[in-house]
């Protein structure tokens, strides 16, 4: 089944060229089924790339999905054309009275700031509070996961000695949780962050469950005990070149950047990267949509509480 997106969204051409099943708004109007409504709060600076990453990850499902993109009104992205934002994005006041089956809150390049120093923190906390009663399940990514853990559960973030950057091995900590269904005992996922949350603090919190971790990258997937909040500290949605683009960007800025680990064959940046996480990403998002959104959401959206 397809993902329903605006007819003119730039990601559409990319996804169709990859044989991803998408459907434009015009054609979707003639289908008599209820799609899942997913809201994506996109806090990443390169919003068009992030749109494509997330839509690709959501596409491997038999469910029809209707996506709304949300941006903050207290901070306007400088890296995405304004006409794109005005064409495809809403602000919170436009969706505040709506309800959604699922929501994704992305990462953002503000890790080294204290949460309260982020200029849209107050707006973000309002949205996160709203999500508790207006969204069946919310999926938080990277800094978005740290922000959600801090706001909802009081979990602090800590600065790392160096950037956690590369593709790392992870293990499944709870094989019985449906989100982890079908996962290998060891799987890979990308990380790109300067901060972390502590394993001991997650395990000590009675309202949280640790689902996956890495010996090297630390906490990876955490879920609230009511299963309505999922926190993923890495970037399973990244495509093959994303870490490479980040590496080249930071090197061009003169930053002392290490080569992303376990990414280039023989650690040679002139080689094409190895994609070790694609199947994991597909499974993670399809499990979330199936078990935590589709099977948990009421048919009538206004019944979400």
From TrEMBL:
Its EC number is 2.3.1.31. It comes from Carboxylicivirga linearis. Coiled coil: none annotated. Keywords: Acyltransferase, Amino-acid biosynthesis, Cytoplasm, Methionine biosynthesis, Transferase. GO terms for molecular function: homoserine O-succinyltransferase activity. Substrate binds at residues 163, 192, 249. Transfers an acetyl group from acetyl-CoA to L-homoserine, forming acetyl-L-homoserine. This is Homoserine O-acetyltransferase. PANTHER family: HOMOSERINE O-SUCCINYLTRANSFERASE. It comes from the Bacteria. It is found in: Cytoplasm. The record marks 192 as: Important for substrate specificity. HAMAP family: MetA_acyltransf. The active site is at 142 (acyl-thioester intermediate), 235 (proton acceptor), 237. It catalyses: L-homoserine + acetyl-CoA = O-acetyl-L-homoserine + CoA. It is an enzyme of class 2 (transferase). Pfam families: HTS (PF04204).
